[in-house]
Amino acid sequence: MNERMETYRQGRVAQRNPMYRRLENFQAKASREGNTREALRLLKLKQTIPSRLHADPNFRRLYYIRYADD
């Protein structure tokens, strides 16, 4: 199984989600300007979306989990 996992793996890390990065930049700008209410709103919105792209074609991982019900 380890050999299959190594041949299947591709890429080092999944790409970051562009929408997440955009919200991160807006949040940092609002925080720098002292607009804490807007920064908090953007933080809550940012927490609802994934930070990495799960469908990145250049990144693959295979995990082997053995379930034993003995």
Describe the structure.
The protein is mainly alpha-helical and 70 residues long. It has helices spanning 2-8, 18-32, 36-46. Helix 2 (18-32) runs antiparallel to helix 3 (36-46).
Low-pLDDT stretches: none
Q: What fraction, in percent, of the residue positions are helical?
A: 40-55%
N-to-C terminal Cα separation, in Å? 21 Å
In quaternary terms, these chains amount to single chain
- Shape call: elongated
Helices and strands: which structural class? mainly alpha
Beta strand count: 0
| Helical stretch tally | 3
Mean pLDDT: 89
Alpha-carbon Rg, integer: 19 Å
Tally of structural domains: 1
SSE string, helices as H and strands as E: HHH
Largest sheet: none
How much β-strand is present in the residues?
under 5%
Topology, element by element:
Blueprint: H1 2-8, H2 18-32, H3 36-46
Compact description:
This protein is an all-alpha fold and 70 residues long. It has three helices and no strands. The two termini are 21 Å apart.
Quick tags:
70 residues, mainly alpha, elongated
